[in-house]
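Working notes for the structural subgroup meeting. M.R. asked for a predicted model of this chain before we commit to crystallization trials. I am recording the input and output together here so anyone reviewing the notebook later can reproduce the run.

Input as submitted:
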Amino acid sequence: MSLENNSYLSLKDLQTVCLKQYIPFASYRLPLQQDITTLVQHQSFPAEIDSLEDIEKRTGFIIAPFFGTEQHHSFLLKPDAIFQADNIAPAFIKDLSENSVFLSTEKPSDKEIITTAPEDFIQQVNDAKQVMEEGKFHKVVLSKVRNETLNNDFDTSEFFLHLCLTYPHAFVYIIQLPEVGCWIGASPEPLLVIEYGKVKTVSLAGTQIATDAEIDSYRWGEKEIKEQGIVTGFVEETLKKIGINNYTLQGPESYKAGNLIHLKTSFEFDSNNLKNRLGVFLKAIHPTPSVGGLPKEAARNFILKNEKHDRAYYTGFLGPLNIEGKSNLFVNLRCLQLCHRKFVLYSGAGITVSSVAEKEWEETDNKMLTMMNVLRNL
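Returned structure, recorded in token form:
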């Protein structure tokens, strides 16, 4: 992929028009693929989804929050036009800039988000460990946020394209919707992939810094192995609860994602087992313990009570749904929220009774480097 290629220059032109006029769109590149797909909805507003169980026959690009509230709903971008990077007509871009129903749409005002202080995060980790020692839950994922000022010459499209180049194994995306704002990310974690008659999902947990070592040479401590086992057990239990028993399991194994190594276990089963139950499955599995905790309700309540920031769509999920018979939904990790003159970075770490608070803070810093390393090299 060359950023000077005419097809990518056309993509940048299309994204620039959408960004400036706040036209709903999503561009994405699937893991280990070259093609960038862009969906544009310029004739109407994206649809709000009342329940995940309503998405069975819908087509488009879905985005769902970590936890649905009055402020944050799930939405489906229903494209009026779908492009690959090499087939974007200049005439469409010109028409879009002149005739979109979003010409007069004003940018939503930025919500104040305060950078997480180290002492607050460390206190939350220690509080969580105490609650776990009391037996109220087994794992909880705590997150933090960081505000950064945007450079005056920041080019959003250029940043997206550099993410595609830098992280070939990730799901790289940019999405902008009126009530969601603009989010950009490079997620390593598929929530649900449906293609070629198969359904795939994973459990992902445990983190260490990547080196030049062979992937099979990484060693894991008791804390990471236990954390990964918690997530894997949850996925297995969820599959069995909805009557899916004939699945194959591979792992746990080390998995490289950008500057980090994780432990991953992969699941696969026949798509016929999920017929008419896609929404049921998503509602049952989201949020997984890799982003929330276990038991789900107790961990979620602790997060909502103790985290001082609003996660919004961080640790939610997003991706193309039922497009050409395929769905590729990913957990919204390694991401940032683009605001007017700043961006907000999000990251989190899985906390168990054996966690060391200062090390968890360091882990969340390392996860933010996925975005920061690319920003620094623009």
